[in-house]
């Protein structure tokens, strides 16, 4: 049950140090920030998070960066320097959670591994996000979402049967790893409340990829049959896919025999429901190559709107296959409040954000993503650093961000 204060106050007393980059770790930190945590994003002072420079750009930063870094304060620190390391450890003394996504062994070489940090912060929840883990095999493998999609078999079952392997367009593995990281951090905070001891948790992209494909994995283990790409179709039911209509594509989903019977009536082909090849869900899945053209021939004769109305009246689930732009313009998006305007505080509020899905009461903070190093001085003063140390950090930051012979980048 949501309290009167709302979800946005859930972690109001929690401070998070976000040392991660790209998508998985930053998403985890952003969700905690959405839920009220004070998130401090520690970035390289010269270039920041890798995604700041990715195209397309808006207001000086990549839209990928903007999608997973709201509700954070940015501090520019050179963690390779003794001074930067010491400042980070000072910040850790007042933090509850630290998230890092360095390659295996890098945090330890920087003197910022779990054992290093817990000396200064004995109750820290330390979350490591990795590609393949830190074991003797996993630590040798490079990892990004696309590589994990290829390694895990996900690409091999995505796309159309006669086409090349395809990548799942959203970075599904990165994003699901970020969400599992949040679950691990929440569990660790709960354990810490009982033990009062530091906790080290891990979320690996490969683990989350296999979990995403759970029912395909179970199917392979149970039957020995390797899943194949099916285009828009479901591996478990038929028909459950997109068919070309007279003016576009209509997506149809049937989950049981009764729905299939009603679909056949609406298509004007009741005989298909009595065909021995298509009697049960299992029969239809086994005979999908025979059934699909029989259905496709019927769908081609009417428009998408006609089919949506006709099938809806028959209590068969059907809808238009839309482009992303069409989906965002649909009245349901406004009804659900899925696109929200950032708070005016900070950078321009002109670019809408996708709200966190569980923020149904609108209580979560909506501070826009920070500019690189925007809050360095503010955060260092809060940590109790004296003026000389703050000036030293700021001067180093300015030097790092100023290429030889040029003005500071903005």
Task: Explain how this protein is built.
The protein has 410 residues and is of the alpha/beta class. It folds into 2 domains: 7-212 and 337-400, Rossmann fold; 240-320, formyl-coa transferase, domain 3, CATH 3.30.1540.10. The chain contains 17 helices and 13 strands. It has helices at 24-34, 63-67, 82-93, 106-109, 114-120, 145-152, 172-195, 205-212, 214-223, 257-267, 281-286, 288-299, 304-313, 324-329, 331-336, 376-382, 387-400, and strands spanning 15-18, 38-43, 57-58, 61-62, 72-76, 97-100, 125-130, 199-204, 240-244, 249-253, 317-320, 339-340, 353-354. The strands form 4 sheets. A 6-stranded parallel beta sheet has the order 5-2-1-6-7-8, with helices on both faces. β9 (240-244) and β10 (249-253) form a beta hairpin. α1 (24-34) crosses α7. Mean pLDDT is 93; it is low at 403-410.
Spatial shape: elongated
Class of the largest domain in CATH?
Answer: Alpha Beta
Helical percentage: 25-40%
Write out the strand line-up for the largest beta sheet, numbering strands in chain order. Answer: 5-2-1-6-7-8
Structural class: alpha/beta
CATH-derived architecture of the largest domain: 3-Layer(aba) Sandwich
The profile of the biggest β sheet is: 6 strands, parallel
Work out the count of structural domains.
2
């Amino acid at each position: 049950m949501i309290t009167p204060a709302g979800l946005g106050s859930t972690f109001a007393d929690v401070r998070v140090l976000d040392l991660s980059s790209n998508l998985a770790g930053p998403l985890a930190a952003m969700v905690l920030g959405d839920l009220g945590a004070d998130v401090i994003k520690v970035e390289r002072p010269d270039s920041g998070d890798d995604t700041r420079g990715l195209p397309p750009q808006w207001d000086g930063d990549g839209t990928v960066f903007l999608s997973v870094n709201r509700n954070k304060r940015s501090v520019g620190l050179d963690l390779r320097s003794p001074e930067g390391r010491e400042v980070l450890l000072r910040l850790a003394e007042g933090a509850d959670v630290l998230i890092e996504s360095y390659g295996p062994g890098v945090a330890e070489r920087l003197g910022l591994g779990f054992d290093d940090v817990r000396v200064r912060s004995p109750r820290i929840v330390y979350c490591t996000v990795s590609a393949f883990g830190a074991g003797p095999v996993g630590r040798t493998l490079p990892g990004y979402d696309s590589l994990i999609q290829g390694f895990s078999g996900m690409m091999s079952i995505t796309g159309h049967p006669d086409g090349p392997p395809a990548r799942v367009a959203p970075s599904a593995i990165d994003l699901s790893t970020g969400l599992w990281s949040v679950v691990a951090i929440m569990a660790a905070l709960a354990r810490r409340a009982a033990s009062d001891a530091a906790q080290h948790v891990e979320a690996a992209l490969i683990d989350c990829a296999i979990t995403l494909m759970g029912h395909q994995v179970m199917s392979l283990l149970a039957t020995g049959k390797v899943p194949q790409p099916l285009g828009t179709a479901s591996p478990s039911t038929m028909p459950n896919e997109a068919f070309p209509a007279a003016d576009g594509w209509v997506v149809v989903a049937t989950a049981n025999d009764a729905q299939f019977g009603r679909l056949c009536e609406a298509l004007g082909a009741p005989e298909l429901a009595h065909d021995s090849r298509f009697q049960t869900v299992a029969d239809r899945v086994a005979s999908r190559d025979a059934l699909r053209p029989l259905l496709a021939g019927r769908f081609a004769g009417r428009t998408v709107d006609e089919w949506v109305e006709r099938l809806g009246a028959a209590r068969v689930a059907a809808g238009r296959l839309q482009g992303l732009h069409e989906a965002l313009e649909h009245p349901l998006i406004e009804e659900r409040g899925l696109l929200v305007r950032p708070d005016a505080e900070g950078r321009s509020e002109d670019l809408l954000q996708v709200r966190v899905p569980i923020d149904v009461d609108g209580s979560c903070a909506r501070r826009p993503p920070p500019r690189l190093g925007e809050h360095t001085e503010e955060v260092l003063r809060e940590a109790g650093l004296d003026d000389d140390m703050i000036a030293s950090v700021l001067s180093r930051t300015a030097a790092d961000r100023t290429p030889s012979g040029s003005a500071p980048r903005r």
